[in-house]
Design brief:
inositol monophosphate 1-phosphatase activity; magnesium; 2 domains; metal ion binding; seven-stranded mixed sheet; about 270 residues; alpha+beta; Inositol_monophosphatase-like; Inositol monophosphatase; Fructose-1,6-Bisphosphatase, Chain A, domain 1
Length: about 270
């Protein structure tokens, strides 16, 4: 039996929505009762954390421990959990992905949660409270976007403005979108067939920024890989690869060719 069965899945959604309500209370872009109390602090790695991150982390850690007794949690806000290479089953949590966007009042922030079971990423969820979007995917059960089944595009070649790149220099192309997105938004658009491909050069990305996205892409019919075409593998907070490539599956080789061009010193086209 899967660690996250349909009963647990419903309870997880309730838990993440409760956490989202807390974020909305603190969010400077809304009218929440706690937004005047939002405080930001700088962490040792120079990234920022807010009172909202910490409160949501506490709620989710407690709720997950009650739903899955004894299951280890790797969380961005719990440094002691960042090395789980000896565990075959655990969950990976980012209580607030996009803290800078959140603190600036932008709506593109999310809660990310993934479950690793016997070494396999079998479940992922992404909740964007300010946009009202909830995506979840369980191995073999498909990807749901606000309760509706999602499928990637069927384009065999990239459509105009259908490829999003981040931290990656490329020559101007008809295929590239000029839309400003973060990685979670881009993945949402892959799953809903709005985009055909995504290439992200990892900079400060950690495991909790990526893990939940993998089941969402796979269960909507897409493909996700590192720069070598291999499935991303996680055993600590550091991803261990340089690029994340996401596609509808049909154009994945097209994206991989651009990485090869980049490594050869050519301008990807």
């Amino acid at each position: 039996m899967s660690l996250v069965d349909k009963n647990k899945e419903a309870k997880l959604e309730e838990l993440l929505r409760r956490a989202g309500d807390i974020l909305l209370d603190y969010w400077p872009g809304g009218s929440g009762a706690l937004k005047s109390r939002l405080e930001s602090f700088q962490k040792s790695d120079a990234s920022i954390v807010t009172t909202a991150d910490l409160e949501v982390n506490a709620l989710l850690s407690k709720g997950l421990s009650e739903l899955f007794p004894g299951l280890e949690i790797m969380s961005e806000e719990m440094p002691e959990t960042h090395e789980l290479r000896n565990r075959s089953s655990f969950c990976i949590l980012d209580p607030l992905d996009g803290t800078k966007h959140f603190a600036a009042g932008a709506s593109n922030f999310s809660i990310l949660l993934a479950f690793v079971e016997d070494g396999n990423l079998n479940y992922g969820a992404m909740y964007m409270p300010a946009q009202g979007d909830y995506l979840c995917a369980a191995k073999g059960r498909g990807c749901l976007f606000n309760g509706h089944n999602m499928r990637v595009s069927e384009a065999e070649t990239p459509r105009p403005s259908s490829i999003f790149i981040e931290h990656f220099d490329a020559a101007p192309s008809l295929f590239l979108t000029q839309e400003k997105l973060d990685s979670s938004e881009a993945i949402k658009k892959i799953c809903s067939a709005e985009l055909d491909g995504v290439v992200i050069r990892l900079r400060k990305h950690k495991t909790w920024d990526i893990a939940a996205l993998i089941p969402l892409v796979e269960e909507s019919g897409g493909r996700i890989s590192d720069e070598h075409g291999a499935m991303p593998y996680f055993e600590s907070s550091e991803p261990g690869f340089a690029y994340l490539l996401v596609s509808n599956g049909q154009i994945h080789d097209f994206l991989l060719e651009r990485i090869v061009q980049k490594k050869n010193g050519e301008a990807p086209k």
